[in-house]
Design a protein that fits this description.
Blueprint (H helix, E strand, L loop, with lengths): L6 E9 L9 E6 L4 E8 L4 H22 L6 H21 L7 E2 L1 E7 L2 E7 L3 E6 L2 E4 L6 H7 L5 H6 L19 E6 L5 E5 L1 H4 L4 H8 L5 H14 L6 E9 L1
Antiparallel strand pairs: 1-11, 2-3, 3-4, 3-5, 5-6, 6-9, 7-8, 7-10, 10-11
Helix pairs in contact: 1-2
Length: about 250
């Protein structure tokens, strides 16, 4: 039995939040090439901003080159692009002492016909909303979340921990890094959310699902998420990228 080819709509919003002097988040997507991603940079001065923007640019450019050659945005293509982005960030930091140690998280979604894959490094996340039910598709690479998964810390303790900002894997901080890759079943009506922790630190999964359970245009849903995260404190930069699957 043939599988229907899905089509996708997307929109994104990024915001500095209420506390940070600059925005070190970045996002990018190409519906044509089937690639969507958000990044949350880290590093002194403007280094985090540079790392996140460089990651987005490298991944989009390299995926576009391969897809234009006749290949779909399959996981091996995205993985190669992520490896190249890591090398670009790391080598730039090696050449410029002011950028030493810069890095970024990455959460990405790639689609090819009716198949989808999710990639992540760090604590930016990808969710899927289906029939009003939200599911986190990524696993945070953070010290506290790894402690929670190991049963050494409760979710409530993790939220209060002074170590909650410590991530255990980042793009560009080391010569080599590996992204987690998750194949994802996709059906018409699925809504994917890629976001940085400026959203998930302020709003829990239930609140996010409630805000997304609406047929409004995607850009309005993104703006609503950002607005509510800012009302809840807006302690960090906030980026939301929504991708809707259609038959």
């Amino acid at each position: 039995m043939a599988t229907a080819v899905l089509h996708f709509l997307a929109a994104a919003v990024t915001d500095r939040g209420r506390k940070r002097p600059s925005n070190e988040d970045a996002f990018g997507y190409s519906i044509e090439d089937g690639i969507y991603l958000v990044c949350d940079g880290m590093g002194g001065a403007a280094a985090g901003e540079i790392a996140s923007s460089l990651a987005v640019d490298e991944v989009l450019t390299l995926v576009a080159q391969r897809v234009n050659g006749g290949a779909a945005a399959r996981p091996e293509i995205v993985e190669e692009a992520i490896v190249a982005a890591n090398e670009a960030i790391y080598s730039r930091a090696q050449r410029n002492q002011r950028l030493s140690g810069m890095g970024t998280t990455l959460a990405a979604l790639s689609v090819a016909e009716s198949q989808a894959w999710v990639f992540n490094i760090g604590d930016s996340r990808c969710y899927r909303l289906r029939n009003g039910r939200i599911e986190q598709l990524t696993l945070d690479h953070s010290l506290v979340e790894e402690q929670v998964r190991a049963g050494r810390m409760s979710p409530a303790e993790a939220r209060r921990s002074p170590l909650k900002n410590v991530i255990t894997r980042a793009l560009g901080t080391q010569a080599r890094v590996t992204a987690d890759v998750f194949p994802v079943e996709t059906v018409p009506g699925d809504l994917f959310l890629l976001c940085t922790d400026g959203l998930t630190r302020e709003l829990d999964d239930e609140a996010i699902a409630h805000l997304l359970d609406d047929e409004e245009p995607l850009d309005e849903l993104c703006a609503r998420l950002v607005e509510q995260a800012k009302k809840a404190g807006g302690h960090d930069n906030i980026t939301c990228l929504l991708v809707r699957a259609q038959g």
